[in-house]
C-alpha cells in the first residue's frame, strides 16, 4: 500500500470508530431486582413499598415513577429504576439512579435532574 492509501484507511477507521463512541448511550445496567421484602436504608420502607411510587423534580412536578429497586444482589439495594413520564422530557428509556440521589420529602420521592443528566444515567433493561 502506498502512504496515501494507508493514511486514507487509517483516517476512515478513526472516523467510524470515533463516531461509535460519540453516539454511544449509557450501557444497560448489570443490576438485579432487589427482593420485595428488603428494607431500603435511609427510606425506612421495603423495596415493594418504593415500587410504583411517584417521583418528582425539585420544582414539585411529577417526572416519573419507580419501576424497580435494583442492587448488586437481591438483598443489597443500590439504586432505583425510574420510568420517566413522556411529558417530563427526560427520555423514553427507564434509567437507573443511585439511592443517594433520591430523597424523601414527606410522602414524595424527589430527584433533582435535567434531561442532560438523565441521558447519562444507565439504561434499565428489565
Q: Overview of this structure, please?
A:
Mean pLDDT is 81; it is low at 3-25. The protein has a single domain (26-120), classed as Photosynthetic Reaction Center, subunit H, domain 2 (Photosynthetic Reaction Center, Chain H, domain 2), CATH 3.90.50.10. It contains three helices and nine strands; from the N terminus they run αβββαββββββα. It has helices at residues 3-22, 47-50, 115-120; strands at residues 32-33, 39-40, 45-46, 54-56, 62-73, 76-84, 95-98, 103-105, 108-110. The chain is globular. With 126 residues, it is α+β, with helices and mostly antiparallel strands. The protein is 24% helix and 32% strand.
Structural features:
9 strands, seven-stranded mixed β-sheet, two-stranded antiparallel sheet, alpha+beta, 126 residues
Short description:
By secondary structure, the protein is α+β, with helices and mostly antiparallel strands. The chain is 24% helix and 32% strand.
Sequence stretches where pLDDT stays below 50 over 5 or more residues: 3-25
Anisotropy-based shape:
globular
Q: What is the domain tally?
A: 1
Relative strand content: 25-35%
Largest sheet: 7 strands, mixed
Determine the number of helices (DSSP H or I, runs of at least 4 residues): 3
- Which structural class should the secondary elements be placed in? alpha+beta
How far apart lie the N and C ends? 49 Å
Taking all Cα atoms into account, the compactness measure Rg is 20 Å
Question: Order of SSEs, N→C?
Answer: HEEEHEEEEEEH
Share of residues in helices: 10-25%
The CATH superfamily is: Photosynthetic Reaction Center, subunit H, domain 2
Please state the second-level CATH architecture.
Answer: Alpha-Beta Complex
CATH class: Alpha Beta
The name CATH uses for the topology is Photosynthetic Reaction Center, Chain H, domain 2
Number of strands: 9
pLDDT averaged over residues:
81
Amino acid at each position: 500500500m502506498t502512504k496515501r492509501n494507508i493514511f486514507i484507511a487509517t483516517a476512515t477507521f478513526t472516523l467510524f470508530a470515533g463516531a461509535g463512541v460519540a453516539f454511544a448511550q449509557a450501557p444497560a445496567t448489570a443490576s438485579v431486582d432487589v427482593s420485595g421484602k428488603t428494607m431500603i436504608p435511609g427510606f425506612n420502607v421495603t423495596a415493594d413499598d418504593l415500587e410504583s411510587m411517584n417521583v418528582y423534580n425539585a420544582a414539585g412536578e411529577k417526572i416519573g415513577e419507580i419501576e424497580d429497586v435494583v442492587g448488586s444482589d437481591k438483598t443489597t439495594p443500590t439504586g432505583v429504576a425510574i420510568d420517566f413520564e413522556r411529558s417530563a422530557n427526560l427520555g423514553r428509556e427507564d434509567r437507573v439512579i443511585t439511592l443517594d440521589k433520591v430523597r424523601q420529602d414527606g410522602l414524595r420521592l424527589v430527584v433533582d435532574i435535567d434531561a442532560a443528566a438523565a441521558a447519562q444515567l444507565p439504561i434499565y433493561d428489565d
